C-alpha cells in the first residue's frame, strides 16, 4: 500500500550558480550546481563505475539531468548564461523540480512505498531585479501537483521573496535583541549571476534604495577563464575548478595538467567587484544612515575583502554570514515557519 508524507515547510533557492534547499529545518541545507544537462537517453552503470547522483526531470517533453553530479552529464559545449528571464526557462523548472526531488526523498528516507509528498508551504526567492516581474509567475508554477521521478509532489502554498531578504531574516533570527529589529541594515548578496543589495529597517524594506546589478561570481570566473584560454568558460568542469580557486584564494588553477598563476588576472576580478560596489553605492546614496552591513552569497568572502579595501571607514559595520552560501535559503525556511505560525493563531 502506498504511503504519503507531509512536510510543513520547505525552501528552495535556485541561483544562476547553485541550487540550494532545506531538508526539514532551516539549519539542515543541501545544494547542487545549477546545471540542467540536456539528455536524450539514460546512461548504464557498469562494474567499477559509481552511479551518478542526480535525477532526470522532464519539462515540456525535454529531459534534463540535475543534481550533484549533473556536471558529468553536460556535453561541455553549452555556455552558461545569465538571463533576466531565467526563472521562466525550462532549466529553471528542472532545477526546481530536482530540489523538490531531494526534499521529498529526505522526508521519506526511512519509509517504504511513499508515492505522494505534500509540502504545505514552499518559500522560494528571486533576485531583486527580476522579483517584481516574475514572482507571481514562479509562485503559480510552484503551486499544484508535480510528477517527479515516479513520485507525486504537491505544493499547497508558495511564497516567492527577494533573495537577500532571506539572509536578513536568517541574520535577525540569530540576533534576537530588540536593537536588531530597529537597526538599519544593508544586505549585500554576491551570487553567481547577480549582485543584490537590500536596505531595510529591521526586516521592513526600503525598496527605492535597494536593487541589483547583473554581474556576480560567474562574471569573475568567466573573466579568468577567458584570460587563460578561449572557450574554457563553456566547460562546467572548468568553471567549477576556477570558481573554487578564486573563492578559496588559491594562487594557481590547474589547466591542461599545468598550474596557471591566478594573480595576473585578479586585478580584473577586483575591477568587476568594484563595479558592483560602485553601482550599489550610487543606489544606496548614504552609508552613514546604515548601522550594519550584512555580507552573504557564494562570493561573500571575496566581496568582504574588496569592501574593506574600498570603504575602510565602514569596516566596523561589516558582518559576514558564517555560511553565506546557505544564508538566503535558511531565511526562506524561517519565513515559511513564521507565516505558518501566524496562520494558526
Strand-helix topology:
Blueprint: E1 3-14, E2 18-22, E3 29-33, E4 37-39, E5 55-59, E6 62-66, H1 90-107, E7 114-126, H2 128-142, E8 144-148, E9 151-155, E10 158-162, H3 163-174, H4 178-181, E11 184-190, E12 195-201, E13 204-205, E14 211-213, H5 217-228, H6 236-248, E15 252-255, E16 258-261, H7 263-284, E17 292-296, H8 300-310, E18 318-320, H9 327-344
Parallel strand pairs: 1-7, 7-9, 7-10, 11-17, 17-18
Antiparallel strand pairs: 1-2, 2-3, 4-6, 5-6, 8-9, 11-12, 12-13, 12-14, 15-16
Helix pairs in contact: 3-9, 5-6, 5-7, 7-8
Explained architecture:
The strands form 4 sheets. Strands 1, 2, 3, 7, 8, 9 and 10 form a 7-stranded mixed beta sheet that branches. With 345 residues, the protein is α/β, with parallel strands linked by helices. The mean pLDDT is 91. The protein has helices at 90-107, 128-142, 163-174, 178-181, 217-228, 236-248, 263-284, 300-310, 327-344; strands at 3-14, 18-22, 29-33, 37-39, 55-59, 62-66, 114-126, 144-148, 151-155, 158-162, 184-190, 195-201, 204-205, 211-213, 252-255, 258-261, 292-296, 318-320. The two termini are 36 Å apart. It has 9 helices and 18 strands. Helix 5 crosses helix 6 and helix 5 (217-228) packs antiparallel against helix 7.
Amino acid at each position: 500500500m502506498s504511503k504519503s508524507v507531509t512536510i510543513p515547510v520547505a525552501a528552495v533557492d535556485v541561483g544562476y550558480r547553485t541550487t540550494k534547499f532545506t531538508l526539514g529545518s532551516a539549519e539542515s541545507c543541501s545544494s547542487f550546481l545549477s546545471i540542467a544537462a540536456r539528455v536524450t537517453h539514460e546512461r548504464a552503470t557498469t562494474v567499477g563505475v559509481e552511479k551518478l547522483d542526480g535525477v532526470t526531470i522532464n519539462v515540456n517533453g525535454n529531459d534534463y539531468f540535475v543534481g550533484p553530479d549533473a556536471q558529468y552529464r553536460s556535453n561541455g559545449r553549452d555556455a552558461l548564461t545569465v538571463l533576466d528571464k531565467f526563472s521562466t526557462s525550462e532549466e529553471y523548472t528542472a532545477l526546481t523540480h530536482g530540489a523538490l526531488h531531494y526534499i521529498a526523498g529526505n522526508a521519506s528516507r526511512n519509509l517504504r512505498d511513499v508515492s505522494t509528498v505534500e509540502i504545505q508551504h514552499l518559500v522560494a526567492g528571486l533576485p531583486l531585479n527580476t522579483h517584481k516581474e516574475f514572482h507571481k509567475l514562479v509562485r503559480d508554477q510552484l503551486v499544484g501537483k508535480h510528477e517527479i521521478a515516479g513520485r507525486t509532489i504537491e505544493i499547497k502554498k508558495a511564497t516567492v521573496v527577494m533573495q537577500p531578504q532571506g539572509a536578513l531574516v536568517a541574520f535577525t533570527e540569530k540576533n534576537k535583541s530588540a536593537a536588531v529589529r530597529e537597526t538599519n541594515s544593508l544586505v549585500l548578496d554576491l551570487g553567481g549571476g547577480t549582485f543584490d543589495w537590500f536596505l531595510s529597517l529591521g526586516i521592513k524594506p526600503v525598496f527605492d534604495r535597494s536593487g541589483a546589478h547583473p554581474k556576480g561570481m560567474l562574471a569573475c570566473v568567466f573573466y579568468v577563464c577567458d584570460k587563460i584560454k578561449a572557450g574554457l568558460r563553456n566547460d562546467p568542469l572548468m568553471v567549477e575548478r576556477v570558481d573554487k580557486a578564486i573563492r578559496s584564494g588559491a594562487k594557481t588553477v590547474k589547466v591542461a595538467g599545468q598550474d596557471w598563476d591566478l594573480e595576473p588576472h585578479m586585478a580584473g576580478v577586483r575591477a568587476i567587484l568594484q563595479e558592483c560596489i560602485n553601482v550599489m553605492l550610487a543606489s544606496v546614496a548614504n552609508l552613514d544612515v546604515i548601522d550594519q552591513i550584512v555580507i552573504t552569497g557564494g562570493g561573500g568572502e571575496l566581496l568582504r575583502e574588496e569592501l574593506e579595501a574600498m570603504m575602510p571607514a565602514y569596516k566596523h559595520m561589516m558582518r559576514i554570514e558564517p555560511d553565506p552560501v546557505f544564508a538566503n535559503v535558511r531565511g526562506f525556511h524561517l519565513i515559511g515557519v513564521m507565516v505558518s505560525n501566524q496562520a494558526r493563531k
